[in-house]
Amino acid sequence: MQGFHCATCGEYHDELPTTFGAPAPAAWYDLPEAEREQRAPLSSDQCIIDDTHHFVLGRLEIPIIGSPEPFVWLTWVTVSEADFYRTSELWETPGREREPPYAARVQSEFPYEVSTLNLKATLQTQALGDRPLVFVDAGDHPLALQQNAGITLDQARQLAERCLHP
Prior knowledge:
It comes from Pseudomonas qingdaonensis. This is DUF2199 domain-containing protein. By secondary structure, this protein is of the alpha+beta class. It has one domain. Helices cover 23% and strands 27% of the residues. It is built from five helices and nine strands. Strands 3, 4, 5, 6, 7, 8 and 9 form a seven-stranded mixed sheet that branches. A two-stranded antiparallel ribbon has the order 1-2. The longest helix has 12 residues, at 153-164. It starts with a strand and ends with a helix.
């Protein structure tokens, strides 16, 4: 995407970044740092905390009106143990995108006035090589409204500024 003058820092940024996300589920940061590796194995796509909480990283896409590219939140979601292991079982299986969606809850905090933690969602497995898609089910939350209706390029810039300058 084209560059923009940042209203927050006043600088010109050469490109408008449209993908942001958290490296770990929010609950992972609640663990004492010294215990994270033992209690919460974390990969680039999955995390299990204390053998009871199961997380998958997905793509929550928000259409940018007039643009072929969406704004993307890489978001962690929690799913049931059975769904987590089913997802893992199919990780390298062709045709996995035909799997029914899984019930999920958002486990990443994004810069909205209303918290995004624990929003009801669904996780839809995609074709091999593609990260699963996340669809927010909380119809009145700003994130759900944006995902359904799309955002303007200016709104995408504002989201990027909030992420670049928290």
